[in-house]
Structures are given as C-alpha cells and as structure tokens.
Design goal:
With 217 residues, this protein is α/β, with parallel strands linked by helices. The relative contact order is 0.21. The N and C termini lie far apart (44 Å).
Length: 217
C-alpha cells in the first residue's frame, strides 16, 4: 500500500505577461529547492489542448486593434472549464503531498467572460498557495520578444512598442492582489526564485487567494 500523505504540498502561481520571465523563475525554483516541485502552467496546458482550440487559456486580452472584441470569442465558452481543470489539477497534486509551481497570465479582459481568477482562487481553498506577481516593464518585454519570438523578422530598434504588449502589461496585473511581487528587469530568475523560496520559509502565510476568492465577479 502507498504511504499516506501526511502533509499537503505548496503551490506557487506565477502571474505575469508573456515574456516577463515566469517560466525561467519556475525552472529556477525546481533547480534551487531541495524539495520536488512539479512544473504546471499555461504553456503546458496549451500543449495538451487540441490545436483547433488553441490558444485556449492563452487567449489574448480584448481591445487590441485586430481583435477589439476578443481574439477568439468562439473559444470563450471553454475558458472557465479549462482554467478550472488546470487549478483542480494543481489542487490534486497538493493533496497528494506534491509541490507545484505554475506560470500563468491571468486577465479578465474577454468579450463575454469575467471572474475567472476569483473562481480559480476558490478552487484552492484550504491549500497553501502563494500568488506571485511577475513584473516586467513593457519596454523590456518588447525587447525580449524581438530577441526571441520575433528574431527572424529583423525588427528595427526604434520600432514602437505594440499596443498588445502594453495591454498585456496593464490587464494581467488586475486587481493586483499578490502575496509577493518580483521584477525580472531588476533581478535574475535565480534571484527572484530565491526571494520566493525565502518568503515561503520566513514570510507571512499566503492570503492573496483567500482575498480573491471573497471577491465577486
């Protein structure tokens, strides 16, 4: 018979815009901690989503020039269930005594949806979950995009920051309730991971998800 779980695991949910450095922090937590951390999150969830339904939970915020009503309104009915499945998966890992680090990009700027983050927080009731804001100025995010995803396009240095990058930066951090925030433009992924691990050892108990769960919307 398998050993009984004596203590639930801990989760760290890293929230920030694409290219803000969340994935690098998640990897650093896995490498730096002596405890095992399972790496879940939006990118991995998108990978298991049927191609015709992608980007799934990676839908971009509404309001940009080429999708003022939302990137894929036809996919929006699926989004609450997809997010629910992700967070229920995290919760199951925790109840089995496994730690989880998950990188996400929560926003509530859809054509028809609202309250997804609050619903996700309610699914983690009674479980030790730290909600960490991963900050990075839009200027830095844009440069990282040019250096990675858009490298083949040879975009000029003086090219203006796209509206999408600024909207992501604005929408992903609403309402701004976190247990801890880090800034990857000022600190390396390893430094941010160390700050998070130290906070879990010596800082106050997580409260952000409890506060979010109590919100309406």
């Amino acid at each position: 018979m398998p050993n009984a779980v004596t203590q639930p695991g801990t989760s760290v949910v890293l929230n920030g815009a694409p290219r803000s450095g969340k994935s690098s922090i998640a990897l650093a937590i896995q490498q730096m901690s002596q405890e095992p951390w399972m790496n879940l999150g939006a990118d991995r969830f998108i990978e298991i989503t049927p191609e015709r339904l992608r980007p799934g939970i990676g839908l971009r915020p509404a309001g940009i020039a080429n999708c003022p009503g939302g990137e894929r309104p036809d996919l929006e009915p699926l989004i609450p269930g997809l997010y629910g499945a992700l967070y229920e998966s995290i919760a199951i890992h925790l109840r089995l005594g496994l730690n989880v680090v998950a990188d996400v990009a929560h926003h509530d700027n859809y054509a028809t949806l609202s309250g997804i983050l609050c619903d996700c927080a309610r699914r983690m009731e009674g479980l030790r979950t730290y909600f960490v804001g991963v900050r990075c100025p839009a200027e830095v995010v844009w440069q990282r995009r040019k250096d990675t995803w858009l490298r083949e396009q040879d975009i000029q240095d003086e090219a203006p920051i796209p509206e999408l990058v600024r909207i992501w930066d604005r929408e992903v951090h609403k309402p701004g309730i976190y247990d801890l925030e880090v800034d990857t433009s000022k600190s390396s992924a390893e430094s941010c991971a160390g700050k998070i691990l130290a906070h879990m050892k010596t800082g106050p108990r997580p409260e952000a998800f409890r506060r979010l769960a109590a919100m309406t919307g």
